[in-house]
From TrEMBL:
It is a multi-pass membrane protein. GO terms for biological process: cellular response to phosphate starvation. Belongs to the PsiE family. GO terms for cellular component: plasma membrane. Signal peptide: none annotated. Pfam families: PsiE. The gene is psiE. It comes from Siminovitchia acidinfaciens. Keywords: Cell membrane, Membrane, Transmembrane, Transmembrane helix. This is Protein PsiE.
Length: 145
């Protein structure tokens, strides 16, 4: 095995991959931040027009704004929680995305019902996640004699 300053190549590979992942997430956060600002500009344009305001478009843009916001928040939490994505943020993003779909594509009642069921399932999953203890009991007691 190749040794570089008391670390083997096998020990360096995860460190290199973690660095690539971290750099990629920083770039993604920057891109999402630019898109977030673009959404704010779109909000101001929609609000400043004196013609008929399309409220569905406005609500869809607000929810898209929150999707960007939640993804950026999730990336921040990833770095704050020692390289771990909290599951609850994925649930928040899923719920927000499904609400946006209902607002944008509500022409078909069956699809709206299915989207609503997906939201219900995500909320139930969030509830189950919150009532489940974060610390798992130590399983070593089972093997003690």
């Amino acid at each position: 095995m190749i040794k570089i300053k008391d670390l083997t190549l096998v020990q360096w590979i995860p460190k290199i991959l973690q660095a690539v992942l971290n750099i990629s997430l920083v770039f993604l956060a920057l891109i999402l931040s630019v898109l977030l600002v673009q959404e704010l500009i779109i909000f101001s344009k929609i609000l400043l027009q004196e013609e008929n305001i399309d409220y569905q478009l406005f609500l869809a843009n607000i929810l898209l704004f929150f999707l960007y916001f939640e993804f950026i928040t999730m990336i921040v939490k990833y770095f704050k929680e020692d390289y771990h994505f909290p599951l609850r943020y994925f649930l928040y993003i899923g719920i927000t995305a499904m609400i946006r779909l209902i607002i944008v594509d509500h022409d078909h009642p069956i699809n709206t019902l299915l989207y609503s069921l997906v939201i219900l399932i995500l909320i139930i999953g969030y509830f189950i996640m919150n009532i489940t203890p974060r610390e798992r009991p130590d399983s070593r007691w089972f093997f003690k004699k």
